[in-house]
Amino acid sequence: MRAIQASEVAKKVIREEPLFILDVRNEDAFKDWKIDGKQVRHMNVPYFELLDGIEEIEDSLPKDQEILVVCAKEGSSIMVADMLDEEGYSVAYLQGGMKAWSEHLEPVKVGDLKSGGELYQFVRIGKGCLSYMVTSDGEAAVVDATRMTNVYSEFADQLGVKITHVLDTHLHADHISGGRKLAEAAGATYWLPPKDAEEVTFNFAALEEEASIQIGKTKIDIQPLYSPGHTIGSTSFIVDDSYLMTGDILFIDSIGRPDLAGLAEDWVGDLRESLYSRYQELSEELIVLPAHFMIMDELNDDGSVAEKLGVLYERNHGLNIEDEEQFRELVTGNLPPQPNAYQEIRQTNMGKVQPDEETQREMEIGPNRCAVR
Fold it and tell me: 233, 12, 251: which is closest to 129 by C-alpha?
């Protein structure tokens, strides 16, 4: 048997290669969150049901395809994979388990910028998070960084650029931001919307509409656009007059939820204003780059998550609800479960608590739950 890293699994999912997964976590954990993909087949059998052998599931296992065994951390999958290997199956296990899957970031080049820079998207395929790097003339800005900050630092080193600005579109509630940590390590400026930062315990640069952040000697504006609704401070970025980074306000197949600070009824009007007025005034040719995706169908063939704003106004149900009361009902009465440990995550992102690394991993386990569709 062999160990497979999360990066290899991510590439298989993006390329839509056939993948058979034997997930040996408990049934409730499997139903809540699993490795998805168009060509992924699953079989869920808790490992404790296999302690006496695999005889009862052999008829359901493929004989002509590698079996990937998955568990939460790795240990149980190694045990089951070893049993399968002894019976002659082609088998592998996911190194680091679902925790490693949750943390993997897959970099995808979105495009070249008009004045010579580049734009990259980091797809956290196991969590649905999306973050970005804008580069120009030896400098870089990172938007909505995850806590795995070494990925951005190492990628910047590969490109030969220095991270000079780090920005968060809002105070995140579903994952721990790496923005402040990355900025401190790189000696960069950390930007945060001030309306989301009234309780933070650290210094930051105020991200407001009049701000215009230049990357490198070439002028590549990251023009902030105040767009509340997911949070009171949610801010979008127009990059290079070509891309609209929407944070958690607008996704490809859904829209943002307004309830993660307990103020859904107060913020639903702001959400509608942002989506139905502020964004409507923008060019339909802008390429929308959200901070999350909800389902694998939102990924393009190259693994990126992006679509023209005009296309979203045609196809995204959340942008086509004329009746305000119906819209209000959608975003306040149809909410999915809240993210795991979201209150603790908000406290961490404010700097009020400093959980250790293992605790942070546990806090983030689970799917993306920032959207309403």
Answer: 251
Q: Which residues contact 235 (CB under 8 A, 6 or more apart)?
A: 169, 170, 193, 207, 208, 224, 225, 226, 227, 247
The pTM for the full model equals 0.92
Rounded CA-CA distance 216/210 in Å is 19
**pLDDT at residue 262, rounded to an integer:** 55
Residues with catalytic annotation? Answer: 71
Residue ranges and CATH numbers for the domains of the chain are 2-100 (3.40.250.10), 105-358 (3.60.15.10)
Is the pLDDT higher at 233 or at 159? Answer: 159
pLDDT for 292-329, tens place per residue? 998 888 999 999 999 999 999 999 999 999 998 888 88
CB burial class (10 A; 0-12, 13-18, 19+) of residue 216?
buried
Percent of the chain residues past pLDDT 90, beyond the cut = 72
3-state helix, strand, coil in the chain (%, to 5): 35, 25, 40
